[in-house]
Write a structure and sequence with these properties.
Shape: globular
Strand content: 25-35%
Distance between the termini: 16 Å
Structural class: alpha/beta
Largest sheet: 6 strands, mixed
Amino acid sequence: MSNSLIKTVTLKHTNKVEILKNIEVLLVGTNIINESNNMIEDIDYRESKGNIEVYPNVLLPHIKASYVKKAQIILVKNKDSAINWNDKKAELIILLLIPEKTDEDVQSKIRDFMKNLASEEYIQKLMKRSNKL
């Protein structure tokens, strides 16, 4: 899996809104999303359509949008405590951002990543990963 596709962010915040606001600032600053975006609203909308839990205490909010410039998988952690995500506690948030148009190579890498999420061992490795954004 490409190191440029997956990054880890460790924050001190424990609440969903604070986390997403901080992630949004990082993503705009690293040119992954446009400054004018609906990321937080889009994540809320996607969550309203179905469960995003992929493993106990691991959530996978994801969006595909025109304001996403570059596909990115962001592993969001809090080193000191659980993250409060709506009515759930999470140790790891896997934020998947996909542009409207994505080349086949990147799509293939994302599919491989998603398949790997079926492995408990792989998820445990993600929970320990420390490659910073």
